[in-house]
Design brief:
Blueprint (H helix, E strand, L loop, with lengths): L6 E5 L4 H12 L3 E6 L6 H5 L3 E4 L5 H8 L2 E6 L16 H19 L3 E5 L11 H14 L4 E7 L1 E3 L4 H10 L3 E5 L5 E6 H10 L9 E5 L4 E3 H11 L6 E5 L1 H6 L1 H8 L5 H8 L9 H4 L9 H9 L1
Helix pairs in contact: 1-7, 3-4, 4-5, 6-8, 8-13
Length: 305
Amino acid sequence: MPQDTSTVLVIGASGFVGRQLVRRLLADGRRVRCLARDRTRVQDLAQSGCEVVEGDILNPASVASALESVRAAYICIHTLSPQGASSSGQDFMDVEKTGVRNIASACQRSEVRRLIYLTSIGVAPDASSAWLRGRSQTEQILFDSGLDVSVIRPGMIVGRGGTGFDAIIRGARRPVAMVLGNGRQKFRTIAVDDVVYYLVGVLDDPRSFGHHYDVGSDDVLTTGQMIDLAAEHLGRGHPFKIHVPSTPLGLAGPLIERATTLPRGSMKGFVDSLRIDMTGDPTALRTILRRPPQPYRQAMERALS
């Protein structure tokens, strides 16, 4: 029998983590609603029992509609991905800040107190990346809202369908792998089901209110190391690595944004993050949710099985 039948809203359910989160909540017997710009992208979730509200975080009316009769909401949005027409011409962090403000305001009006926000290891007010600084500002918008907010900051998420991990697997399958940046950047890895474990685990735990948590395994690896371990699992030799410098990527950013409908400035935000080690300190949440996170090799092998 389900422990709680009141509805939980997932904003960003068409994304990599959001989709896995919805499936886990449904499997736990919870009633789940999602807010999606395009209903067809979450048709599989609807068929599994998820209620779908079509709308956009930039539209306050659709956010308010999605929050009606909801007890808690997850925000799993990623503005370094292509956005809808409603965000045309906006800076990439303006999209997220506006959306997060709309969600917080709608929660206050609807008396939905519980909010859980998924961001990233490396988020800090003084980070050298505009993306990581901007996400720190959006986290603070929620912490200043007076709501019961928790923030989960994962490292490199390991699982099929994740943009970063899928690029690693493509590289592992080829004799020559393209690696963005200088190859020295380090990432703390975390399996996607461990991210979901933490997201679900904090939902009803008041000890997590008002806190942000880095989450990840004990493995800290470069992209090249992750590619080589995946190649070994696939029975292949280590590919030759070609490193793509960050400066040319940044200069090509505006052209890439126009060609792919990425928000303005998102490529620069991404390129700047290539210069930062994404390692964090995952120990704090482990004192509350004690299941050991999977090491990279185990998570990678499960993803490829």
